[in-house]
Specification:
Layout lengths: L3 E7 L8 E7 L7 E11 L1 H8 L10 E2 L4 E8 L11 E4 L13 E5 L4 E2 L6 H5 L2 H15 L6 E4 L5 H12 L3 E5 L5 H7 L3 E3 L6 H8 L5 E6 L4 H5 L4 E9 L10 H5 L3 E4 L6 H12 L7 E6 L3 H10 L8 E5 L1
Parallel strand pairs: 9-10, 9-12, 10-11, 12-13, 13-14, 15-16
Antiparallel strand pairs: 1-2, 1-4, 3-5, 3-7, 3-16, 5-6, 6-8
Helix pairs in contact: 3-4
C-alpha cells in the first residue's frame, strides 16, 4: 500500500496563497537513501524567491519546496551503513531537487545527511542547515578568514547574519556589522565588536575612521545592490568580498580593482562535511541558533510573508516551521 503524507505544495508562482496543503505520495527509498520524518524546517530568502518565480526554469510545478530539515530516520536503503532507523539528523535537501522540506517525510541521499547536534531541538537544528552550510563555505572555503583579521558583515541581525557573526568570532576575527540601532545590543551579544546603524550612519566613513583608513580584510554581503557596489570602499589591499546575492544589474566594481580584491559569489553546495564541522561548534556552544518566529506547516504562506517583511517585524534570526 502506498504511503501518503501532508505537504505544502507550490501550485503556482506568485504570492503567499501559492501553497496548498495536500496529501501526496511518500517517495520510494533508493539503495543509498534514507527516509526522514521531518520534525521542523525553516524559511530562507531562497524559498520566497522560488515561490515568486525567480527560478521558474528550475522548478517544475506543482512542487514541494523548502531547504532545511531536522528529523528522525524512519527507513534506510539497502546500501546505507552510516545511519540507522531512529537516528536524529539534519541537512539541506538538494537545491532544485525532486522534493524539498515542506512535507512530513523526505527522502535524501545519505551523503547530504548529518547527525543532529544533541544539544539542539529540531527547530533549532532546522534553522541552521542551509544558513550554517552557506556561511561555513563563505568564510572557510572561499574567504579563508584567518585569526586576527577584520570582517564586515552586512545585515547582522538577519537569519544569515546572526550565524555569520558567531562563526567569524569563533574563527578569531574582529567583527563589524550593520544593523538598525535597536539591534545593536543584540548583535554585540552575538560577538560583534562594532555595530553600525546603516539608517543613520555611513558605514564607509565609520569603518575607515575606526581602521585608520586600512579597511577590513573581508566583506560578507547578504544585501546586494549598492551594498555590493560600495563594499570595496572599506576593503583593505588584497581583501576579499563574499556575496550571497546574484547580480540583478551591471555593477561598477572599479574600486575593487585598485585594491587587488577577490570576489566570491556563493550558491551553497550541500554535503555532510560542512554540517559535521558546524556541529562541532554547535556542540561546544560557540555558535547558537537564533529563532525569531515559529509557524506550523499549514501556515507556510504566513511564514513567507513574515520573513519577507523582515525589518518591519523587527525580525531577528530565522523563521522556523514545525512539521
Amino acid at each position: 500500500m502506498e504511503r501518503s503524507m501532508k505537504a505544502a505544495v507550490l501550485t503556482k508562482f506568485g504570492g503567499y496563497d501559492a501553497f496548498e496543503i495536500r496529501d501526496v505520495a511518500v517517495p520510494a527509498v533508493g539503495a543509498r537513501e534514507v527516509r526522514v520524518r521531518v520534525h521542523a524546517t525553516a524559511v530562507n530568502p531562497l524559498d520566497y524567491q522560488v515561490r515568486r518565480g525567480d527560478y521558474a526554469d528550475y522548478v517544475p510545478l506543482p512542487a514541494i519546496t523548502g531547504h532545511d530539515i531536522s528529523g528522525v530516520i524512519e527507513e534506510t536503503g539497502s546500501d546505507v551503513s552510516e545511519f540507522s532507523v531512529g537516528d536524529e539528523v539534519y541537512y539541506t535537501p538538494l537545491i532544485f531537487g525532486p522534493q524539498g522540506s515542506y512535507a512530513e517525510q523526505h527522502v535524501a541521499h545519505v551523503d547530504l545527511v548529518a547527525r543532529k547536534p544533541k544539544n539542539l531541538t529540531h527547530e533549532e537544528a532546522a534553522s541552521m542547515t542551509l544558513v550554517g552550510g552557506t556561511v561555513w563555505e563563505a568564510f572557510v572555503t572561499r574567504a579563508q578568514l584567518r585569526v586576527g583579521e577584520t570582517i564586515l558583515i552586512h545585515g547582522g541581525a538577519g537569519g544569515v547574519g546572526t550565524v555569520a557573526i558567531q562563526l567569524a568570532k569563533a574563527m578569531g576575527a574582529r567583527v563589524f556589522t550593520t544593523a538598525t540601532s535597536g539591534h545593536h545590543d543584540f548583535v554585540k551579544g552575538l560577538g560583534a565588536d562594532l555595530a553600525i546603524d546603516y539608517q543613520t550612519q555611513d558605514y564607509i566613513e565609520v569603518i575607515n575612521d575606526v581602521t585608520g583608513g586600512a579597511g577590513v580584510d573581508v566583506v560578507f554581503d547578504t544585501i546586494g545592490g549598492d551594498t555590493l557596489t560600495n563594499s570595496p570602499l572599506v576593503l583593505a589591499q588584497l581583501g576579499r568580498i563574499v556575496t550571497l546575492v546574484d547580480i540583478a544589474q551591471p555593477q561598477n566594481l572599479i574600486e575593487a580593482w585598485g585594491r587587488n580584491a577577490s570576489y566570491h559569489f556563493v550558491f551553497t553546495r550541500q554535503n555532510r562535511g560542512k554540517l559535521d564541522a558546524l556541529t562541532g561548534l554547535l556542540d561546544r556552544g560557540l555558535v547558537k541558533p537564533v529563532i525569531g518566529a515559529r509557524f506550523p506547516l499549514d501556515r507556510i504562506g504566513d511564514a513567507h510573508a513574515y520573513l519577507e517583511a523582515g525589518s518591519a517585524n523587527n525580525l531577528r534570526g530565522k523563521v522556523v516551521i514545525t512539521v
